[in-house]
Structures are given as structure tokens and as C-alpha cells.
Amino acid sequence: MSNELIEQALTTATETKDIVFGTDVLDQTGDLFTRMFPGSHVLVVADGNTFAAAGEAVVASLKSAGAEFAEEPYVFPGTPTLYAGYDNVEKLREYIRPLDNTVVCSIAAGTLNDIAKLASGELGRPYMNVCTAPSVDGYAAFGASISKDGFKITRNCPAPTALVADLRVIAASPQRLIATGYGDLIEKIPAGADWILADELGIEAIDDYVWSLVQGPLRGALADPEKIGEGDVEAITGLAEGNIMSGLAMQAAQSSRPASGAGHQFSHVWEMEGHGLDWEPPLSHGMKVGVGTVASCAIWEEALAIDMNALDVDAIVAAARTDEEVEKSVRELLIPRIADEAVKHSVFKNLQGDELRQRIEAIQAAWPRIVERVRPQLISPEEAAERLEKVGAPFHPEMIGIDMERFRTTHIKAQMIRARYTVLDLLMDLGLLDSVIDALFAPDGYWGRHPHQSA
After folding, report:
1. What is the pLDDT of residues 293-344, one digit of tens each?
2. How many alpha carbons lie under 13 Å from residue 303 in its C-beta half-sphere?
3. Is 264 in a helix, a strand, or coil?
4. For 70-113, what is each residue's pLDDT tens digit?
5. Helix, strand, or coil (residue 401)
6. Domain residues of the chain, as ranges?
7. pTM of the model
8. By the 8 A CB rule, do 411 and 308 touch?
9. What CATH architecture does domain 3-173 belong to?
10. Residue 249, burial from CB neighbour count under 10 angstroms (0-12, 13-18, 19+)
């Protein structure tokens, strides 16, 4: 990939206006700030780790460019569990509120970037970020994932006005943050298959331009997991660019569809349940997504083996669940704070009678084309796991503290929590989700063959 592609993507981004991307570019932070926010004061926000990584250079650049400081830098503790909740969004927001004409320049990776993004967004103020790790695709995306009362949810807020991404700083970030960025990015592979499925069924059309922003550079960005895991600057360049491009694609689409499929929904379930938020460091989004990616690739492998011509359509339609039965199932499986929203999505997706018959017939008619397009898009679950292992990321649920019984149930929960059509919904429409899960966990199925992380 090249800066030219980033520049192209900026032309269709709705909120991000400029990105400085390259090696040894921290000294351009001040010029970028004064260009984007002329006459504004600056408040630098960081934590102990990110300030140590880039703080002095960022402050020096802002001073050199003539930016006026509203206050001394606001520095959170270096331990994420001490600041990762919504209460710190509120604290930062109220700290900023009386500082008239002040824009935050955060020096941050995922969680702290989201805190600065949401605090600024709730005040209706723009902000910019200096990226310190290639750990998320959320740098250039709208929305912020924040934990509250032990649960993590995504809240609406604008994307940053500007970003600085210094590759030397990013490559020097902790290995776990590099690995989590890889886990977030690799899910774009099966997410692309999910979008192809929705496109072929006329549910959600693919925008070729938006598709190209994510899928065009994706394989190259993921190409060398070993060197990426070792912190090689050249290899990490693709990872950092790929995650930034995903955020810009989401802006262009005004949706996370270009960057998120069924694999992300596994992570969303665990985040909504609060899994790993109390770990030190907290279990990252990308590490959960990586495991979800292996799961999604395994599900797709089973789906592609279905003989669509052998389906008994009458029997499937006759066995379809009522909306009341769907709601009952959702409420039995999900905790109340998740279930209320999930019921809406699950009932919305629940087809019955003639609507279901038409959907199944559409799937049968489109299936040859779906298979033709999806096969070259996907990788096997074995390859996904191998890549994650090489980069140093979790590739098995036990590696993130999820036992196999809970993991199996997550396959069902993941279908319930979003309206977005994925391979999980394909199987639900066909009445085959339970049987596919059984096959995956049977002795000769993917998870039956890999019941433990060392298997």
C-alpha cells in the first residue's frame, strides 16, 4: 500500500481530514494541529506508557508550531485497568468542558484513544490522535468501545479530524498490541465472505470502492505474521496502514460492514458479557476477534460443503420458529442487558412462511455464484490459526479463558446480537445452524480435532 491510497480514502472520509503517516514524523504533529485547528488551544492526553513513547516529541512539535497549551498534559496511569471505564470518559469530558476553544491531541492506542474520542464527541468538539500501536482499526473510525458497569459497548461519536502515525513508534509498541492489531485485521477476510453473501442475496450490496479500501491492501498487510510479530518496521507498515484504511472505509460506508463480520460478533458477545475486562492488561478486542476469525473460517468451511439442492424446503419452512420462540431463546441465552437489544435483531431476522421460502430459494439459486466468489476470498481455519500463532496472538478459545462449552454456545449467541447478515444467518435461515455446530464439535470436526490450545 502507499500514502496515495490513504490520500484517496481521505477524499471520501466524512470526518478525518488529514493523516501524517511515515517514519520519524512525530515532528509534524504541531504543524498538523495548527493547520487543522487554527487558533485553538491544545490539551495533550496520554497515559504513562504512551507519553513515554512519544510525549516529549509531540509536546516539542506542538510548541515549535506555536500551538497554545490549555493546560499541562493530562496523563492517565500506565495501567489500563485503572482508566479503561466510562467513568474516565466523564472525568476527561468534565476536565475539558471549561477549557474554551480547546482541542484534545491524544497520544494513544485503542482504549485511551476511545476515551479521548468519546469525551470530545460528547462535547461536540473535534480531536486528533497520535497513534502509538497498530492495535485497532478504530483510529480512523467513528464510535468508541467503552466499558461501563463491567460490560463493554460501542457508543456513537465522530472519528478523529486528523491522525499522526509514526512507524518507528508503532513498531516499538508492546508485542501484545501488535498481535491484537493482526487479530483485528485478519477477520476482514471472512468478513469479506459475509459481505459477498449478503450482496448475492440482495440484502446489502457491496460498494466496490469501499471494498477496495479494505480488501485491496489486506493480503499484503497480513503477509508476514512472523516479521510483524517481531516488530519489523517494514512488515508493520502494512498492518498499520491496513487498520487505518479499515477505519476510513467505515467512514466512507457509514457502516462497519466493510471491516466486521461473524468473527467480530464472537468478540462482541464476550465484550458485552464483560469477559477479560478485569484482566491486567485487559483482554484486547483484537485477541478475541482473532479467535472469532478461526471460528468464522471453520463455519464457512462447513457451509460450503452443504448440498443446497438436497434441502427439503417444505420441512425447513414447517420447522421455522415463531417470533415468540426466538425471543424466548434469546432471553434464555443472553444476560438481560444484552437480551433486550438482541431480541430486536433476532426477531427482525427471523423469517417464516413465504418469506422464508423465498429466502431459501434465493440462496439455492445464488449458491453457485456465492461459492465461486467466496472460496478465493476465504482461508482455512488452520491457516488462520497458524497465522495468529506466528504473530503471537491467541488462536484457540482456551487461550483467552473461554472453555469449550462456553465457546460452543457463543456460536449461537453471535447470531443473535446483530442485524448484519452473515454466514451464521445463512445457516439459521436454512435450519442448519445447530447441525453445523454439532459437526464442528464432533470428533472429526474442526474443534473436535482441536479441543485444546495445544492440540
Report:
1. 999 999 999 999 999 999 999 999 999 999 999 999 999 999 998 899 999 9
2. 31
3. helix
4. 999 999 987 766 676 899 999 999 999 999 999 999 999 888 99
5. coil
6. 3-173, 177-206+258-449
7. 0.95
8. no
9. 3-Layer(aba) Sandwich (3.40)
10. buried
